[in-house]
Amino acid sequence: MNMKKLHSGEMKKTVLVLTLLATLTLTACSSANGETEVEEVDLSAVSQQVEAFGRVNVSEEMSVSLDVSARVAEVMVKDGQQVMAGEPVLALDLTDFQYQTEDLKGELAVAQAEVRAQAAELGQETDRLAKDLAFAEEELAQSQKDLETRLALQEAGAISQEEVDQYRRETASREKQVQDLSLRLNQQSGIQQLTIGREKVAALEGRLQRMEERLNQFFLEEQHILCPYDRGAVVNLELKEGDRVDAGQRLLRFINLDTLVVEADVLEEFIRDVHIGSKVTLVPAADRSRSYEGKVTVISDTAFVINNETVVPVTISLENPDTFLRPNFNVDVFIEMP
């Protein structure tokens, strides 16, 4: 059997083509002239593989961090433990964040009340100005009529110029009053303060919404961190009860145990014999009586130097995984050559 093998970091390629022409002498029968019949049998057999070491990994994982600071109230699992979808792994104390949120809500409530009061006061002022303006316009109209009457009387010689001038001054005064009231009504005394108040309310509402959105993370429910995968595991869990975690700090990682793959390094001189879709046999070091089938799904576009040897990483899918295989298991990898 011909194989390409990697042992203790070294890979040796052996391609043996055994062509055996065996001559079997049949002694049971002889020809009349004494010559023996001869049968030629071709026993050629060719079997080639690239052998490497690999490690079981997962293709899907998730790093968990919060957008707020918190304290660890309870650690409910151990590092490396398998967990199911929706299972809580950490309980959090979000008291500090909740205090901040309540303070902001209180500030918003005060600002909203001030705006309502300003709007109500402004409305009353507007009503008063509108009534005053209407009354002033009526008085102005009457004064203008009175002035026209006085002018006619003056032309008839019934009244003096001084009396007409007095009505002119009165009419002008009422015209100015109407102009002043119109301007005040258009400016609506207090509108600037109301605008500033409304802008403050909008800013506080935006801050509160952004704060509440920090807790809108699909893995967080009622102050518990939940597993997102049907069959997952918790890794890099180094927290203990009472620990403080800052916003953005990693709490742990979830890995999806239903996405196992094998990562292997193939020596550069043999990568030409490895192709996408190449069939692979995998034998775990934990139990060499087991074997798994797979296919090459990814061949790296970059080579790396590891232990003074240049290798090309490849990724291998698993066609028949089971619960025995675990992440970081070592496996022997046998890649069939075309």
Radius of gyration: 46 Å
Instruction: Count the beta strands.
Output: 20
Helix amount, in percent? 25-40%
Which strands sit side by side, in order, in the main sheet?
5-15-19-17-16-20
Overall mean pLDDT? 85
Find the structural class using helix and strand composition. alpha+beta
The major pleated sheet works out as: 6 strands, antiparallel, barrel
Give the overall shape, derived from the CA principal axes. Answer: rod-shaped
DSSP helical segment count: 3
Q: Roughly how many Å apart are the termini?
A: 15 Å
- Low-confidence runs (pLDDT<50, min 5 residues)? 1-32, 38-47
Order of helices and strands: EEEEEEEEEHHHEEEEEEEEEEE
Strand content: 25-35%
Brief overview, please?
With 338 residues, the protein is an alpha+beta fold. Helix content is 33%, strand content 33%.
Description:
The chain has three helices and 20 strands. The protein is α+β, with helices and mostly antiparallel strands and 338 residues long. A hairpin with a 2-residue loop joins strand 18 and strand 19.
Descriptive tags:
5-stranded antiparallel beta sheet; 33% strand; 20 strands
How would you summarize the topology of this molecule?
Layout: E1 3-7, E2 10-14, E3 21-25, E4 38-42, E5 49-58, E6 61-65, E7 70-75, E8 82-84, E9 88-93, H1 95-155, H2 161-187, H3 191-213, E10 220-221, E11 224-226, E12 231-235, E13 244-245, E14 250-256, E15 260-267, E16 279-284, E17 292-299, E18 304-306, E19 309-318, E20 330-336
Antiparallel strand pairs: 1-2, 3-4, 5-15, 5-20, 6-14, 7-9, 7-13, 8-12, 9-11, 10-11, 12-14, 15-19, 16-17, 16-20, 17-19, 18-19
Helix pairs in contact: 1-2, 1-3
